[in-house]
Fold these 3 entries.
Entry 1:
Amino acid sequence: MKSYTFKTLSVNDLQVDLKNPRLPQSRAFIDPTSVMDYLQERENILEVAESIAENGIFPSEPLIAVEEDGIHSVIEGNRRLVAMKLLANPSLAIKHQNKFKEASTNADLSELSDLNVIVYNDRLAAAPVLIKRHTNDPAKLRPWEMIMKAHYTTSFMTAGKTLPEVANALSIEVSSLRSDLETLQLYNLALALPFEPTIKEKIADENKFTLSNLVRAIASSTGAGLFKLEFNDADGKAYLSYDKKEFLRPFAKLILDIVSEDFNSRIANTAVEIETYFNSYNEKFKPNQSLIVKESIGDVIAYTTTLKSLDDIYTVAPPPPAPPTPAPGTTPTPNPAPKPTPTPSPAPPSPVPGTPPAPPPAPAPTPTPKPKPKPKARKRTSIIFQDVTVVRNFSKQRVTVIVTELKKIDADRFKNSAGVLLRTLLDIITHEFIKSHGEDVVMESEAQAKLKPGQKLRDYWTPELFAMLNRIAGGGKKFGLPSTAMSALNKHLTMKGPHNVLFLLNEIVHNPDFIFTKQDLLDIYDKLEPYIKEVL
């Protein structure tokens, strides 16, 4: 069923969107006027208006709106809409009124009464179009910032909706929606911390606070070990693994360093540089992870309301009281030293009558342990080691070609190519492996059975990588893989969030905002190498 219609509407029939993702969440927008004023403050609306006055309205780029309670709110093209409204009524301009009047004089105002508009039935139906335009097509449109995308996609996570349901409706990967949810929760925590007003103002400016630096730091191998966040798909929440006050020690430090630009992509771009940054933290910022507590980021945000300042986070237990000072003219009585407990010597054996006593045995020499030889490090500039070979008789030679190319790609220079090709290799060899055991036919039959009557799977359908790996991991001895390969699979399939190698691979391939390093790719391959080498 078609979820939109084409309508001809006047500019006066249209309203700017109060839920525009570009509007900062820290600022209240109570009516269309407040939105128009904000867009005039932050955007070059005059330039858009002058372009419309000179060139007219392009019919190939219609406005997109949603009709709610009889009101047509424009969800794509708000800057153009504001420019049109100011051409129609220059007195609404909060600045450059004379220039808007001049542009209005030169414009064909009759066009403003006859606008072609695509009108959707609801916001969810239009969402896939907007996401594609603002995240996958940056050359055509100004892309959303990371936090803008997170606000937009997570706004559809209403009560009773699951991650897969919402991701499917938005036409995005579950991993992308999961990343948006965690990103938004971390950002809200940063906003809730008791920083000085000037710091809070900089964090609240979504156009200036570089949220990607925060996400990149926490998703790094060192950051993952420091913060130990876990994501629960069932309720869509990120959880701590240890005490919240201890968690906030390094978290608040990281936020301050991002604001002051003591942590950014120029200073800490590689995994090694990020590790060096975190290692520079003194004891004040290092958490005690011994107290195991499972609390959500929402619980931590609630806890921040009890804090008056950052000093409350870094307060430590007072030292034990000093001993009392003796009165003048008296000699302090020292604490008596504990008497050592004598160790009884073993009684010597009784000598046999008529024989001289035996001499005491000489102490046995202490053997000097030989140092174990250190294994030689396997050096590489590529992700995959040069000694990896293709042994199995794959039905297509493409696997051999991909392995050869992965050996040649310098991951320092071409990390995106290397990451995408590694994911491609995993997909192909895993599918070929289950196919060799006849399991592809079983999985296809299972998928077909889940469809509605009359529906069928698309041509050349293959199972998703995660489903195939889960099938192998749960297959026991059926697939004949050694325990090392099975352990590698089971361990990394069950990990949550950024610890899961498949989550990272999905982010590399599908998330345009995801920032990763060569070391991240090396870590992914190293964790899966026992499985990859066996399947190859």
Note: The chain has a mean pLDDT of 83.
Entry 2:
Amino acid sequence: MSPARSDVDPRILGQLLVVQSTFSVFAARQKMGEFVCRAVEGVPGLASAAVCLPGAGRPLLDGEPAPECADCDVPEGDIDHDPSHPCRLSSRADIQTLSLQTQDRHFGFFFLKVMKPERYSHYAPFVDNLVNSLAVAIERQWQRGRLEAANVELRGHREHLEELVLERTAEVQLGLKREHQLNAVLRAIRNVNQLFVREKDRERLLQQTCGILAEARGFRCVWIVRLGTDGRVEAMAEAGIGPPFAGLRSQALERGELPECCRRALASEGPVVLANPVVNCAACSLPTEYRDTAGIAAPLRHEGRTYGVLIAAFPAEMAADAEEISLFAEAAGDLAFALHSIEVEQARQQAGEAVRDSEARYHALFQGTADGILIADLESRMFRYANPAVCRLLGYSEAELRTMGVADIHPEADLPAITAEFEAQARGDKTLAANLPCLRKDGTVVYADVSAVSMSVDGMVCNVGFFRDTTERKRAQDALSRSLDATLNVLGHAAEMRDPYTAGHQRRVTALATALARKLGFPDDECDTLRIAGLLHDIGKLGIPAEILSKPSQLSPIEFSLIREHPQRAYDILTDVPFPGPVAEIVLQHHERLDGSGYPRALTGDQILREARILAVADVVEAMASHRPYRPALGIDVALTEIRAGSGTCYDQQIVDACVTLFESGEFSFSATSGS
């Protein structure tokens, strides 16, 4: 029911009507709300008013929670403000809450603090109508905003679509042009590759390549510089240049001066583009002939070898075309490969001729050499080839030897040692096996120096053995060795006759020393050198009076100093004898000790030959285990205890350990040595 007009102040009513008709001019919803709040605060019975418009101008969704304080437009002031949650005003008894909503949308709340309800009731319908109008205005503003946003978005889509259409049209046009260009490039590359397959002459290859690139690709001009392995210009070819090329050819071939484009390409890993050749190559005569063009130069390289440079002039707009440049680089790479293939084929032909010449020469050498040659399969050790010289040495025909193997031409007892010799040669430890015994067809034994190498023969890995007959030399060496042994025995007996109490000492020391050397893995020649040194190590005592050597009591300092001279006396006797090894030096050092306490030179450590260290241990053990004029034999146990005590200080530890092992294992004893 409408209030009586007499109860309503016309001025206030007019003010509300004015507000209702004018607040929609505000652009911001907050201003609208504040304007309405100020208008209704003058209504009788109201203390204050506030508006809550959450959601940044959008309608509230169903079930959307009440906004926080910062999102509200509720002013602090007349209404008791709850800082923690102002929208809880709707739950207070003294607050009247009006909903800002239209038929379909809800925009917020309008709060009224009513102090005198009876007075306010006359204006309530007008205020309600004003609030409803506010809701409608807010909805219109929201709808206008949505419409404007949609229009802006639509304009943006239309403009974007127009841009896409223009871009796509340009891309299609460019694509058609690029397709035409790339088809021309591919035709040129195909033609060039076909040329590479059939042409085997380098100069014709270069000239025809220039012609194909200039014609099929449409380059203004193309030219190629071919370099030798020394980097010098060997040949040049061109298409599209004509007479001006003569000066450039002369400059490059006669004076070795390359233009700027070539130098830059050779210094680069890939193509070099010259956007303005007139400026970039000012010293060259060609750019002035081809203005409004760009240049490109690519090195011709394959597997680290530089074969030359490919240069072309093309329209300036192609200078920035990465795909065009890439295809040009591909053509340069293909040309380099073609030059490489021609070079390889020429080398192969030359190598074939060289192989044929070599085979003829080696066949003549194989058949005509005085040394025997046997070629055996590495795995089966069966012979594949034999030359006439080895057939004469062994008494077999080549056909017979091809049915035999390594084991058939050597005595069975010697096979392990012979196999070890060949294995040492295969490892590179030795180059020659001397005086190997070989079985002839008639059963007699001949000797040969044999050196073996591995090589591929008929596609198989084989051992090639070279045999030099040393039978006569071996017989002479054996005779000489027997003479040497006889001489050594005479000299040994001469020394022992001066000192009968030490009879057999040198032979027993020699036996132990050679046993130690073999235990330590010494080769045969070093063992033989040590044997000679052992038999002669006391020969220097020939210069010492027999009375001193056989004196049963302690020697005086002078007498002992004479005894200490015997290594030097022996060295002086032996030094000019051409023994097979350092016999004199071993004898001189056999009383030296690792710690420098020995004589005659007080050597230490590695200054002492290893053979001398062995002889020193053998000498001490034999001397202590045997009878002497001044004392009875001390026995082998005492001797071993002595060298153990000096192990690492006086005596070599490895040699001491080997000596102890020989005696304790029973591998050696003085009683087993002959002539002891």
Note: The two ends are 156 Å apart (CA to CA).
Entry 3:
Amino acid sequence: MAKKTRADKPSKPDKKNKPAAKSAAKKNDEKLASAKKTASTEKSTRAKKSATKSARPPNIAASAEASAGKTLVIVESPAKARTLEKILGRSYHVRSSIGHVRDLPKGRIAVDVENNFEPEYINVRGKADIIKSLKAASEKSKRTLLASDPDREGEAIAWHLATLLNIDPSSDCRIRMQEITEHGVKNAVANPNHIDMNLVEAQQSRRVLDRLVGYNLSPLLWYKVRRGLSAGRVQSVALRIICEREDEIEAFVPEEYWLLDVVASNGARRYTMRVDKKKGKKFVPGNLAQSLEAEEAIRNNPITVENFRVKESKRPSLPPFKTSVLQQEASRRLGFSPRRTMRVAQSLYEGVEIPGRGPVGLITYMRTDSLRLAPEALDSSRKFIEKNIGADYLPDRPNIFTPKGRSQDAHEAIRATDPFLTPEALKSHLTPEQFKLYDLIWKRFVASQMSPAHVSRTTIEASAGEYGMKQEGIVVTFDGWGKIWPLGVKATVIPPAEAGENLILNDIKREQKFTQPPARYTDAGLVKVLEEKGIGRPSTYASIVETIADRNYIERDDDKKLVPTKLGRIVNTFLVKYFPKLINTEFTATMESDLDSVESGSENWIAVVRSFWEKFKPVLDNVTETAERMRIEATPIGEDCPECGKPLVIKNGRFGEFIACTGYPDCKYTRNIVKTTGIKCPKCGEGELIQRRAAKGKVKGRSFYGCTRYPDCDHVSWKKPAAKKASPANGNEESAYDESDMEIDDGAVMSS
């Protein structure tokens, strides 16, 4: 009998209108739901306690005494605190706030629209002991420096800390570290500054705008579409981009075309040229008849070389990473999601213990849209290149890069803090994922300061009657920066030819093709589009995709492409239909530009928020009154319920799609949707491999393959299993299943 996993429960009735008596079944259901909720809460609490056990603040009195007569430095993370304390020495006491200490409360909008959109901040729950400890330490210390990350959010954290610790924000209480090295830290401490209120107000206006949108649109979605839904200012635009790409794919009509490759030679010289012109104009055969017509003409006419040319050119080095490009390259080359990339980068920035050097931040700050490199970075990289790679690879002067479009340029590009700390030298001191990402960042940084690569491009053009054909080749003559970073050049050598000479036809290869629809976005591809359209900023890219994935608005297919779910598409349809001027790329990009203006001090944050609200509020009120309700139609599966005989359908619940009975609430039969592979488990040989999803942990939402006999059989793999094939040696079946290392952290839970 199928396992009952969940039911599509109706919303609870208002207590004032509750019926006098309830059925025994309904009471049992409510008790069960209450028990589940209690168990879930207790489990979550235990997990949180376990996760933060090592981060608990010390005894308040002991913390205060440790700061007495010293300079107190407050950072966000315990790892960063440990690194700084070792660098700064005994005259400093470094403490961690463990993230935000004040924030807007959850569960209500907490923005006073009538009072200039004044946000209502509260101390973060669970941080009372940390706040008391920091206050006591600050009072005993001779000076307090706030060293949160050097971006908008970090500036806001510093301002909240200053408010709680009674520190004047205009005093020299703020230090910003681009890199956590001995030089970077001591230089920052020696040059403190005031808190930049423009940055604080830019972050505050973002939070207020997100509250005004999210806390007004989400209840509307509850009422008009389904309970439990939510919407966001930026995430909803990202969802629209993904849905529109899916619409393009579904509307796409393939068109036929043909490729004609002419194989011709002259003695030992051999060429493979593609037909690309007819009567001097671009030509691609659109059907078999056109292809045969071209083939016949080529066979009946001599093939004459029209032109042979060689062009020497240089390929300048690529710039060092900024946040968006790092996320794209880490996804493409390492298979890292944006969130994973930023988590690993944060650990490299905060510091790694290196024998003989102590804790060292290996990379500069990783949330940036700048391509600028500091003079000392240029100098050290040039010394490394000359000493370890060769003088031929060192250009006459440093390579300078300028980002396209608007850039805040508040930080450097992402780079290794010391090029002499090579990835191979540090490999034994890094985790596998730290090594992979550091290797990527280090190579891109060093390559950015190397000499251009030299390539030789060769082209041969020929004709036969009214048809023209061409072959192109490329050869690297000097690898330059390609010695460190892949050039992406596939060498093709074309033998020399003379204009006017005739070639002998050897063969004509004909191949039918069809145009392909645009590809679905990957995480990295979506980040690239968001950046190109001016949506989001370096600090927000990683969270955008994960947020809409956590809401079950999108999912990842077997190729890690982003696919909108049925729920995501109906939410997008509703928002685009009734808020077309809000949920679009142009408006969102304009808002991001306005926030940049607040940061630069050229715009007042209240004026920016008021301008938005005055446009948004009338539309919101009108939609609330007039919009039609949208519902997700249940999809029949052509199967009857084994308990009551009524039809079964696919429904969409809190955890995604599942199969349920149409007889609900009288019949509460449900079961998971299982995607089978038809392949036996290679570990136990009894169960079958099915597709599951990780429900928790760092890999939450990612598809993997597990045995149907779980938990009796715990076999799992990330890679999609292949069908069995016959072994050529003995004719027996041989599994083509690729069993790779499967790493699921302790917090990961398997889910169908």
Note: The first helix runs from residue 24 to 52.
